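**User:**
If convenient, please work through this fold.
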Amino acid sequence: MDMRTLVEDDGDTIDITLQPVENPSKLEELWTDLERRADGSFFLSWQWIGNWLASLPRGTRPHALVARRGGRVVGLALLCPRTQWRFGLLRTRCWLLHETGERTFDRLFVEYNGILADRNCSDAVLAACFDWLGQRLTNWDELVLGGLEPEAEAAVRLAAARQGHALQVRVADSCQWVDLEGVRRQGAGYLASLGKNTRAAVRRAMRLYTERGPLTYRVAATAEEALEDFHAMEILHQASWNARGQSGAFSNPAFRPFHERLIIGGVPAGTVRLCRVSAGDAVIGYLYNFVHRGRVMNYQGGFAYEADNRLKPGLVAHVLAIEDTLARGEDCYDFMSTPAGHKPLLSNTEQPMNWIALGPDRLSRQIDTRLRRVKAGLADRMRRLIRSPLPLMNR
């Protein structure tokens, strides 16, 4: 399939095509060349995208969106077509951006998502690509865009407004991070920048841990060492999630092989960082971080929780990782999305990150929106019932 259109931008022409990926090696060549001219996130780097492409479930049909200006590639993205059933009732034909529509596989969880665009014309490329994709939706039902970067979301909203598409925010979230330039300007160190109670909790936990032996923070130096830490992290991660009655990230059969490949290539390149924190001879936690253009992103972790809640392995591990990031001269330590108690305590900056779907305002979409509202209302009511105290009987 070869779908073409021409989009005019200030007198210049942006030529957009969408074709099945048939030659990953050729795509890699185009992608890595554009990556050097773009400001995309780690999740738009070939290290993530190439690994994702090589790991796709059988039957997935990835298509490459290619934008050219004057014959030169200025925009790239991968989209997968899939027919989904909403609530078991509504048949929906979708295009998904850097996702497959297979729920389990997509729990690899892309964030800072968008279109890889040449920094010299990125606004024009984003506008042209999302306008073009919106026009193609006349024959489809929905464009699914998860974990969007702010610039990409702004372009999507403009395209939806221009074309009269209904836009639905499926998940409204935010990502939080530590702006280390701000910490450096204050000049008192990271720990001093925290709130009084958080600072006291960290210092108390560190003191209790050091009673067992020196508190040490180690970054794996080789891929082999990093894989050992990754497998040890799995044990701690799964234990804590299973204790809460939840499955944990490693229950996804794609998770371990995907990240093992990412670690093997990423540690030597300096884009993957496995961190181990120990108190004496005992490991208290692991952090699995990505590093991209001065941004350190915490993707996953595993911690040795204990009955004594004064011991806070996650809090201590993140503080040590942030101080290491600060010492390396990097720009920020990013907790990324998904709520967690330590994020607002340790971060000093945040921005929205949303999961969006858009398409023609057909009856099926209106029904879908109403059903989602009913489902969200029921879930909220159940949460309030669980939190409400039970009436006291025979007091």
User: Anything to note?
Assistant: Residues 233 and 264 are 16 Å apart (CA to CA).
